[in-house]
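Here is one record:
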Amino acid sequence: MFFLSFALHSALIAAPDAIKGLITGNSNEVIASAELLSEQPPESLAVWIGAFNDFPSPDTTGWAIELKHVINDTLTAPAWLYIPTSYSPKEPTPLVISLHGGVSGAKFRDASTKNWHEDTVFQLAEKNGWLVLFPLGMTGCAWWDKTGMENILWYIREIKRQYNIDDDRVAMCGFSDGASGSYHFGMLAPTDFAVFFPWSGHPSVGTEVSGIQTYLENLRNRPLFASNGGKDQLYPTEIVEPSHRLMFKAGVPLSVSYCDTAGHNSGYMPNEWSKMADRFARHPRDSYKADLTFTTADIDFNHIDWLQINALDTLRDSSSWYFDLNLKETDDRISIGFNNDPEYKGKGIRVAGVSRDPESPAVKAGMQPGDIVIQVDDVKIVGMPDIVKAKEGRKRGDTITLTFKRGSKKHKVETFYPPVRVFDVYPRRYKSGSVRALHVGNKFEIESMRVSSVKLLLSRDLIRFEQPVNVVIVQGGQTKEVHNSVVVPDSKVMLNNFIQSHDRKRLVFAEIDVEIPVVF
């Protein structure tokens, strides 16, 4: 206790303004503060960063405030932040990211008239003292494309700059597309989160829409509490259950609830909402698990807790230890291949996005976002129920005539539904790399597939720095030691990692880059 008090006292005297600038400053102030702090001992930095609570008091509590993120010259992504009445800038506060459904629109929905007190998640936030971020999504800035995902992560870091957030108590929840987005984050970017609550979604949706490959085994790293309805028009239990079973088989910490009579609506959700607070409280983030697994085909998504994939080598062979968790399905569904814009109020249906499947009728007809669908075969289209009527009794291989307007010009195209096909539920267009890592004390064992380099992110909660760190590569039953020496904590490493993550609890004291040989 004396050591901690002395370290905190030294840091406060040496650079209190710089520490505050590092945590609460704008981007320029953060960089300047990190430069000033780079000569401070990492132990003092860690104590001060962890103890910091000099955040500003909010102007508003008990309601939501609008935020805006200028992504580029043509795209500004709005969000709303609910601040509970009980919020204190002196106390670390849980944060919930609540993802809405219906992100296929051509523009962001208008949430300015939303009555936040009627939203159950916000009622839970007020009762339990959570902050809630309600980002808005649309085509091109959705929960599963890189722009939309980076936007949410940017908001998390921005909120941590202005509010006292408990880094180990950040959850993500969502219904429909929001649920599918929660799965997507769990498979691609789980490090910031403690737990996920996907309600009435499907884990494969993000991959289908964005083309970014996802891997169910990555969900082993965080608990999930999922639910689906048996009569859901989009993601009924019978469609989602095979993926859930595969997760169970892979050791994913999944708890799932099926309501046989529920459709694609929130009617069954009170049962889930009533359990959310307790589940959230019982599952703080564990950033220092003894074993981690991560698979990726895109180096932009390469990180879980203390393990980072630096480089893939897809020319290498697959490994016998790795098994791709995937499913085969027969696709005989009747789909025209476009998403509607729910904000459109005129006659017909405005196209928000077109399927990536080149065999879909919409793609073959040359349909584009912004087109207005006015007739399918003999059925005049006023709203989505007419689309359902037009597809009744049709089967794969049948012809279909699409009539749509683009500007003032009418297009009428005859094409056909694609044949029945068998497909991977989780598409695999590109080769992936995977790492399985285990640490016991100061010893790390790394097994990999198509990965040429990894990085270990070390902290005092993970190892003892006064003892040698031993790193062993495992390959085909053989082992090779690639590191066995003491690692020295480095303030610049800590500061660089903090600037990227703004995570006051997962502080990185040192890094080890590990090159993985092809054979040995």
Residues 1-5 have pLDDT under 50 and may be disordered. The longest strand covers residues 165-175. Residues 146-162 form the longest helix (17 residues). The two ends are 47 Å apart (CA to CA).
